[in-house]
Amino acid sequence: MDSDPSSSLLPDVEDSTGRRSYRPTRLWRFLLRLSRVLIPMFCRLRITGEIPGELRKSSMILAANHIGTFDPFVLIAACARKGLAPRFLATAGLFRAPVFGSIMRGCGHIQVDRGKHTVTEALHNAIDALDEGSCILIYPEGRVTLDPGLWPENGKTGVARLALTSKAPVLAISQWGAHEVMAYDTPGAIARSLLTALWRRPIARVHFAGLVDLSGPDMTPRKATDRITEHYLDALPPLRADEPVLPRHIDPIRPLSSARTYRRPKPPDQ
Q1: SS3 readout for 33-86
Q2: Which residues partner with 137 through β-bridges?
Q3: Structural contact between residues 171 and 210, judged by C-beta atoms closer than 8 angstroms
């Protein structure tokens, strides 16, 4: 269990001029606190790892692996326990959904218009948010992994471009277990899986895996993306020690494909 509970959610940050910076909206602060009560009803949350103290009052990027449709809620609860109020970069479809879209906007999350010419606006909006002192949470893979073993897929370069442009530190997060709580798709399957999770309460593990070193004169967005992926990939096996190859829980609804599974680059010939 997390040994670092926090009673506050990302307090105000001041820049060098003393100007008041980002503060989470009242709605987002309420939902973060609520998550600490609601999410443990569906799973037993186990949080490990630390957040460097110097980052608690500055902007940063959180980069996590994506294993299921419920893991954003698990990450919200884990961040709330750590005293963080992350703003998600999320697909535009969530912002267009009735009610839920209004909540996303009211919480200050950042819309990503995938496949449209306006997709670059998300990068600019995220940079502005980091300049204000926000904590940004991104899934580098861009979708729930379809790998049969639930191992990470190749990351898209958006998070790396954001990090290299803004110079904001990147903290990797590895997670496991949240895929057992909610089915991949279809309303009926989702409802049934949530109901059974109320009595099964699978263990959901979240590990704050430390800062990713993106320094170096030859650092490119692709190299930075791979380095971020490898950072949370390296921390994943201990979280699933009894499931080293395939997950114990198989969701028959989730499609399977290894086409985008991340494979470490081969070292150059000596």
Answers
A1: HHHHHHHHHHCEEEEEECCCHHHCCCCEEEEECCCCCCHHHHHHHHHHHCCCCC
A2: 62, 88
A3: yes
- Cα–Cα distance, 246 to 240 (Å, whole number): 10
Alpha helices in the chain (DSSP H): 26-42, 71-81, 92-96, 100-106, 120-131, 158-166, 187-200, 221-234
Q: Please check whether residue 62 is in contact with residue 173, taking contact to mean a CB–CB distance below 8 angstroms.
A: yes
What pTM does this model have? Answer: 0.91
DSSP state of 250: -
Task: Let me know if 58 is exposed, middle or buried by CB neighbors in 10 A (0-12, 13-18, 19+).
Answer: middle
pLDDT in 10s for each residue of the chain, 270 residues? 444 444 456 544 444 444 447 899 999 999 999 999 999 999 999 999 999 888 887 899 999 999 999 999 999 999 999 999 999 999 998 999 999 999 999 999 999 987 777 778 999 999 999 999 999 999 999 999 999 999 999 999 999 999 999 999 999 999 999 999 999 999 999 999 999 999 999 999 999 999 999 998 899 999 999 999 999 999 999 999 999 999 999 999 999 999 999 998 776 654
- For the chain, helix (H) and strand (E) counts, in that order, are 8, 7
